[in-house]
Write a sequence for this structure.
């Protein structure tokens, strides 16, 4: 069977309304472009005798097309006209080359054919060598050494050390006869010098030429030794930024004849002697020391590590001796909010009150103004492994603020209005001029008493050798109807003398057999199932045994 092909009839695309011409040098990365309305464009500002790559994009109502195939074309060269120059002063010379350095002299090389300036039509009459001394390297730190290598741009800072005809300069043996040398003598040891040259013809002097590299004359061994030591000792870390818990330090690269590949940063608290290593793998010349204490002074020092140190050049390792590492100034961290109070302990308790005490926190540079005490109710947990109940946090119980205006000089604080026989835990935070601290760690569980202690004991019967003692539950006890008391503990104290106005001494755990005609006092407490001992009752009134007839 014959197959039939059919094509949908489409409308032609709209004609281009704008063109974008892009061009770049053959080896360049980025294109330069311009837009135009006509399909003809002249690219201006090209470099003569240079290859260019040119592409075009077209745009209509639907957008921009892809780039066209590149056109590679080379611009034409220029024919330079021959211009006859008039005679002028010489061109400024190029920089001389340093070839030799000793303790008191420097040799510079001047090439008559290359480095010497063009005479510009008139023969050279003279050459002038000028020098600038920037200073001595003795007793300079690294920053000063950097300053020594910077030339003063003013012409008045240069001094003429020699002036004469070029032919009087010393030629070099076995070299191009156009090369000459000049030796500057009677120089200071360990000093940085720069050189430059200017030339003169019949029309006058040229401008000052280019400046040579800076060079230091050799110093005596002792002077250089102390110079190098001082350079290293003066490279102490400098502070550039600080917060309450961090310090950012920078330091210059110490002057050394060996390559330095890393640094070790050490720190200590001011007025102490124990150094600790912050990091011994610092590749750069800056480091941020974190986890510091607020409002605290610290001292730092940097110890460089020398790379490619050959055997015998260092005593035991490639690290600089710590005695050569100078200590920085004392840098203080900023003040911060105080640390939270800690170590919350129980002082006393009742059925509806818990008295707690805590440890004073670190103020971090600003005095503590007051504290906030928070409480949280916990769940009682009875365990088969222990005769006493335990407590676990209640996830539904919120932290409640007891008071946020507790004075700093308060030694303890009583939390009133608590539920009897209920465990609670506490946490605190402190405030100074910068604000509140974070919440402290929660304390362990503290139980209010589930039961009140018994009433003070009373004597129900007595003889010359015995006393019958009785007590009962307090009527105010909210749990006096719950039978959880398992047994009691009775304490007795013998009163050697007694007067109704005397205070009863502390009850001791000692007991005696009662004897005739003596005074005694008693106290008692209850053992509650799962809760332990109650508080002791108040001491009884003094009780006297009978006298034997």
């Amino acid at each position: 069977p014959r197959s039939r092909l059919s094509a949908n009839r489409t409308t032609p695309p709209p004609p281009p309304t704008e063109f974008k011409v892009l061009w770049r040098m053959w080896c360049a990365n980025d294109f330069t472009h311009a837009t135009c309305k006509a399909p003809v464009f002249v690219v201006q500002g090209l470099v003569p005798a240079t290859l260019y790559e040119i592409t075009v994009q077209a745009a209509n109502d639907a957008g921009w097309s892809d780039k066209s195939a590149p056109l590679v074309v080379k611009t034409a060269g220029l024919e330079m006209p021959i211009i006859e120059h008039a005679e002028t002063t010489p061109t400024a010379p190029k920089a001389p080359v340093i070839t030799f350095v000793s303790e008191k002299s420097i040799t510079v090389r001047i090439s008559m054919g290359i480095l010497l300036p063009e005479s510009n039509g008139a023969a050279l009459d003279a050459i002038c060598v000028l020098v600038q001394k920037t200073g001595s390297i003795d007793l300079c730190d690294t920053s000063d050494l950097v300053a020594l290598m910077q030339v003063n741009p003013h012409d008045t800072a240069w001094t003429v050390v020699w002036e004469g005809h070029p032919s009087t300069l010393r030629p070099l043996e076995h070299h191009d006869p156009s090369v000459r040398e000049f030796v500057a003598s009677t120089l200071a040891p360990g000093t940085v010098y720069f050189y430059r040259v200017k030339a003169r013809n019949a029309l006058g002097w040229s401008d000052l030429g280019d400046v040579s590299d800076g060079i230091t004359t050799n110093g005596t061994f002792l002077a250089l030794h102390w110079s190098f030591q001082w350079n290293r000792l003066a490279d102490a870390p400098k502070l550039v930024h600080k917060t309450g818990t961090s310090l950012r330090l920078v330091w210059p690269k110490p002057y050394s004849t060996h390559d330095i590949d890393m640094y070790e940063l050490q720190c200590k608290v001011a007025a102490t002697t124990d150094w600790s290593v912050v990091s011994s793998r610092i590749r750069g010349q800056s480091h941020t020391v974190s986890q510091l204490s607020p409002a605290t002074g610290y001292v730092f020092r940097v110890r460089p590590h020398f790379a490619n140190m050959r055997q015998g050049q260092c005593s035991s390792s490639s690290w600089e001796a710590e005695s050569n590492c100078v200590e920085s100034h004392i840098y203080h961290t900023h003040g911060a909010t105080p640390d939270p109070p800690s170590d919350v302990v129980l002082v006393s308790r009742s059925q509806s009150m818990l008295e707690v005490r805590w440890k004073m926190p670190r103020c971090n540079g600003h005095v503590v103004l007051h504290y906030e005490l928070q409480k949280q109710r916990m769940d009682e947990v009875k365990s088969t492994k222990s005769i006493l109940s335990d407590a676990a946090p209640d996830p539904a119980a919120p932290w409640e603020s007891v008071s946020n205006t507790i004075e700093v000089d308060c030694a303890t604080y009583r939390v009133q209005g608590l539920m009897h026989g209920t465990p609670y835990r506490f946490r605190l935070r402190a405030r100074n001029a910068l604000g509140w601290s974070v919440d402290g760690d929660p304390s362990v569980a503290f139980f209010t008493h589930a039961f009140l202690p018994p009433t003070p004991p009373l004597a129900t019967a007595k003889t010359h050798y015995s006393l019958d003692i009785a007590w009962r539950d307090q009527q105010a006890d909210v749990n006096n109807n719950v039978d959880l008391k398992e047994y009691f503990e009775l304490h007795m104290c013998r009163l050697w003398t007694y007067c109704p106005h005397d205070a009863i001494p502390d009850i001791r755990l000692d007991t005696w057999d009662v004897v005739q005609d003596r005074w005694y006092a008693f106290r008692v407490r209850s053992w509650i199932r799962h809760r332990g001992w109650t508080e002791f009752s108040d001491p009884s009134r003094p009780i006297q045994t009978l006298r034997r007839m």
